[in-house]
Amino acid sequence: MVFLRRCWPSARTLHGYTYQRLSLGRIYRRSFSSQIPIPGNLAALKSILKISEEVTDALATNKPVVALESTIYTHGALGDDLDLEGVVRRNGGVPAVVGILGGVPTVGLLPEEVARMVEGSPKKVSRRDIAYLVGMGICGKKIHGGTTIAGTMVLARLAGIRVFGTGGLGGVHRGGHESFDISADLTELGRTRMAVISSGCKGFLDIPRTLEYLETQGVLVSTFADGRTGSVDFPAFWARDSGVRSPATIHDEEQAAATILAQERLGIESGLLFANPIPEEFSIARNEMDAIIAQAIDESTQQGALGNENTPFILKRIRELTDGRSVLVNKVLVRANVERATKIAVALSQLVAGDSTSSNKVISSANVLVAGSVAVDLSCNYVGEDSSEHPAPHLHTSNQSHIGQSIGGVGRNVALAAQKAMHNSKVRLCSMIGDDLAGSTILSSLQASGMDTSCIRRLSHEQYPTSRTAQYVAVNDANKNLVFGMADMDIFTTHSFPEYWNSTVKTSEPKWLVVDGNWADRDIRAWIQAGKQNRAEVAFEPVSQEKSTRLFCSEKGLESLGVFPKSSVNLATPNQYELAAMHAAAHRHEYFDDPRWWEIIDAFGMRGARNRFVKLTSASMADAGIPQQAIQLLPYIPTIITKLGSNGALLTTILGKDDPRLLDPAYEKFILSRCLSNHPAVGGVYMRLFPAAEQVEDVVSVNGVGDTFLGVLIAGVSQGANIEKLINLAQKGAILTLRSSQSSFTMPPDRPIDTMEDDDPMTSSSEEESGFASDDEMVAQTRQAQIIDKDSDEEELERFVLGDTANFRENLFRDESRTDDANARFGEVGNQEDDESGSDLEDIDDAELFAFDVGGTAPGGKKELTMAPVAKNQQIVEKNTPAWEDSDDERLTISLANATQLRKLRISEAEDVISGTEYTTRLRQQFLRLNPLPEWAREAEGRPAKRRRRSSAAASDSDVSDDASVDGEGAALPLDKFLRDASALKDGTTQVGKKLRPEVIDIQRSRDIPDTHKDEVTSLAFHPEYPVLLSSSISSIMHLHHLAPTAHPTPNPLLTSVQVKQVPVRRAEFLYPAGDKIFFAGRRKYIHSWDLPTGTIQKTNKMQGHRLEQKTWERFKLSPCGQYIGLIASTRKGGGIINILNVNTMQWIAAARLDSRGGIADFSWWSNGHGLTILGRGGQVGEWSMASRRFLAIWNDEGSNGGTVMELGGGNGPVLIGGDRWVAVGSNSGVTNIYDRQDLILASSDGELEIKERPEPTRRFMQLTTPVTKLAFSPDGQLLAFASKHKKDALRLAHLPSCTVYRNWPTEQTPLGRISDVAFGRKSDLLAVGNDAGKIRLWEIRN
Fold first, then answer.
1. Contact status, residue 337 vs residue 167, Cβ threshold 8 Å
2. Could you give the CA distance from residue 1235 to residue 1223 in angstroms, rounded to a whole number?
3. Which of 43, 42, 794 is nearest to 421 (CA)?
4. Half-sphere exposure of 169 (CA within 13 A, CB side)
5. Catalytic residue among 50, 63, 123, 202
6. Is 46 designated active site?
7. Mind spelling out the 3-state secondary structure of 1198-1252?
8. What is the pLDDT of residues 926-945, one digit of tens each?
9. pTM of the model as a whole
10. Is 761's pLDDT higher than 50?
11. Residue of 69, 264, 768, 1183 marked catalytic
């Protein structure tokens, strides 16, 4: 959390001093509206008011921010599924929940903080209560407070927020002219400038007097017309019209935004009320509501509910009298109001951006974003009288020297070099400076050099009193060799703004993000994560030996580094000493113990590689361990360029499985190893030593040499160039820097100095001893504010880099000996997908089709496919052999991956080389696909069926999908062929019995489901017969995926999707045992069934005689026998009810009522479908029989602290209660109890079923600390999965019957997220996990 001060412009610039004697609230308000701040007040405010980092950044960068009250969570009765923050974010805004957390007024509460408030008996806080709660907090009494509309306005205004979205405003109560019962919301609107968007005031208030009072307070009241013409009514909360005309009408969000801005510019301090009528389809008729409100008010008067008790009493009675309809309407209108508030905030932000002359800029896209340091460098060169004989300065005394100032910093140097190489403004530097003279100097210098400074963040002394602009002092001897250096870089390690950085990366949309090592460990990870989230390639500049280790820091509390092919960092350019430091840090923090790292290292096949290291580099390098260290870091950084000074640069990179260099003889000498295993991504390792481009004798300075090297390199790869062709160019840029006194290639002085080699630890990286920067220390030169004219060396470099005036890509990186486009891409750097859009095979001549890979190279360097020569003694053909069969076919090998037109013959993406015989067979199959047999050549197959529109599942290629849209009753695309032709989807494997061992499980990550839901995955279900996975989400989408991880080109392809309009699907299931129907439902008063063979969609919305009990159909489960559907009723009267319907007729047939405090938590059908086990929230568990329509027994879950979920599983259990062996029960405390149902039954002499009333669980699983939300047994009964969606990665697997939790999975690196559902495959060999981000991941469970 950080603090924010925001000054609002006002015409009344001197009023701040005039009102110093007023209340604290008035003082703060005037200080924000005044251009002249009140002394002392803002400093006092920042020590009290906390504002989240995200809101701080949004306000500072003119992002739309919407304030939200916290009483809607702490004292409301609308449930915990409002998701108002999500509404704001989905509409482009930043939510700011306002409240008092532990005595601290806070703007921008996090979800977990709101949860703490709700659980901590919060007070309801209006303006009058704020100082009391804050004062108690200062005294050590931490009290939580949910702010009302008035309280929220006060705190949001202090933070600088303009727009506030809420439900309904308070007002003048009926009879208020006598009781003076008037809401504080109205007076707050009269004195606090805030745009409040609500559905008018509560409908039971005196609306005419409320509007009259607002007029007296000087509050603008305007109602959205929503397409209506003329004057419109002020809304009455639940009803669109109140019968009272609105004082003003507004037509759209842009008009509202313009009004807010005008109010602000005029300095008018009163608020604005924009009334947003409830959507018409959800409104309640005015006459009906008037009658209900009158009854509720009469009862409140009779029962003496006055003052602050009046509104809660009336709202409760209205909820009861409308049978809960008012709650649904309330939810709808508050979401609609928040959505409209966000749209207003967005329009206002755009209006301010277009009219503002402030420093808030709309950030454009950039090819390269450099996140690194910028500093003022002082260089002190000793020039004493004895400097010729004793070049070193004298210790413990003053020395005569020449002192020069320049602007440096690794990030600045890299960005400047990239900008010069690219010769455009598509390079942006993101850094921090202090609010001091050094910071101003840096800004002036960067702007003078033409650099983009929109992302240079200046930290004010008021908010960050310890922040200082980074500075570095270098003390050099008479020969300009570094003696020692002093660095002050605390600004980069003590201030962290990850949300701001992520926003910067998202807005800039860079192709490459460069991160230097000056940031703190956690911030380096934050930058890398931001780059990956926004699909940018990431390069790491180590800076120095010490700082290079920050990439491989302890990962406790940090997100793990990704490993190839999903590596977090794509490129690093250390020198040999930084490489050794990085390797040592990775070893020290156990990065080399990660199973993912071992998997890639094993794929390299690097056993006994010393001779190859010596051959590719040198014996001295191999002895120093340079190539070995690079190889061991490759899984985390797939491309490493090690700078070796006068020895050049060593490129080490991972080659992908399909990299053409693996088959090209021209690159054979650089192939260090090839992958001999069946790894899906690794093809081999490539190592190449590039000699120094030139041996430089006239070295002026080594400052920034490495930075220039990286800057030129990144400039090239961001333009799509081949990194292998860039290294020599980057070295030439570094050479010009060696000859320049500045830290980038500019004007070199004429006087030569001693040679400084790049592999010297003292000179190639001045921070190796100083702790500041590597390859980048600045030498003495007086800073010049003006732009310096280019000298001949700089012009030569620009001509070399850019050509005369020609295109960058065509001239900078053109190489006449360059191979084809496929050969021009390298590993993870500058990688582009291969073109697979070749022409069909029917247009290719036979001679071209039968081309073979003979390992030759064409004159142009391209792979040559030709007919293999045949020896004479092999040309004898047997008499009876068909002429089209060639005995040499089996001895030939053909590469399918290396020829574009042959890739479509592959069975899987990883496949490459096949025999000639197999090649001929596949060509013949491809020909038959393109040219089917004519009618006369086929046997009669009967009259062909009429063609009909069908889904992609009915097509022969399962990787093509059509989306069906469902709206009520109708039809989706039928999946008739999918159900008829099982051979199209059968996975070809048979069920093989397997027995899992306890404690350690063999589980491997499989290919994820490629399609991500737009919202939380709510249910997962495997088809009972076919390898098909059904998934759903509250984004109203259902997917059917064919589980085929080796399918090409898309693993686990999508069969079909269905969009269910206005139904956030919360549960979807296949109907067992055939799986020919899918039932699905959302938080609605109906359920759908989808008949897969016909595509028919049926909707059921009535339950005769039980309609009032079933206000939502989302909590249903289908019986395994396929005959019944059970639904948990909405009512909790008498404990709780489960209604049971016949699946075929959808008619009610029975109800199971369990007397449990709090209602029913969950239930599960017996495996035979003849009954169900029901869990009450109070811990009661009932065994209910369909045959007798009654409970056979009721028992209690031991130590239950509020039951949440339950599940049955396993076989060979008691037949009397369904045959399931195990029952698992999850609770609010995170504990999962598992019971052996055989142990539940007591011996009985009369044959009646008797169950222990309070049995002891077989085992208690206490690994989770948050409420258990999901339980799942594998079909074979050997595994139990239990999970919680309230905490990230909260999933465990338990072995049965040993009831032990596996300790080797999941690990800290297992990518789970917040788990929303879990399911096992029908053969118990697959585990599917869905999370709140909409992703579905699969794991294969092996024997």
1. yes
2. 5
3. 794
4. 35
5. 202
6. no
7. CCCCCEEEEEEECCCCCHHHCCCCEEEEEECCCCEEEEEHHHHEECCCCCCCEEC
8. 777 676 666 555 544 444 44
9. 0.41
10. no
11. 69
